[in-house]
Amino acid sequence: MAILTCFVLIAIPIAIIGACFGLYFWNLARINRQIRDAFNNYRSALELLKQSPNDPECREKTLHLGRYYSNLTRNNRGVTVYDEVALANDISAACAGAGQIPSSAIDTPTTANQSIEQRLGRLKALLESGAIDESEYRERRSRLLDEV
Known about the structure:
Layout: H1 2-51, H2 56-73, H3 81-94, H4 103-107, H5 116-129, H6 134-146
Helix pairs in contact: 1-2, 1-3, 2-3, 5-6
């Protein structure tokens, strides 16, 4: 009987401690999974924002996901000023390409920089390629010659 009592007095606390550790590690794994998923969602939103940097809804969603991720990493104690600056920097970097002139537009000479001969040659090439028909060619050719 004494052995059974001793066993119960030792085994039950050990089982309780083991259950507590198991619950602790299960909860820790759940939190880590939540943080990882939030980080991946934020990074995915940043990639989408790079593709459409002028979309205000995409920008707002990215900021929301960034704040959610930041709150998880700070144990839900709120987003700090530092976090807001870091999020703003990420979003600004994702939107950096918006509003820039593509290099192909810079390399292509505008009609204002071309001579009448060059413009007539380009017009003739458009006709030969089938991009414009004969009547449109004659109309545009006439307007170009009127500029001389």
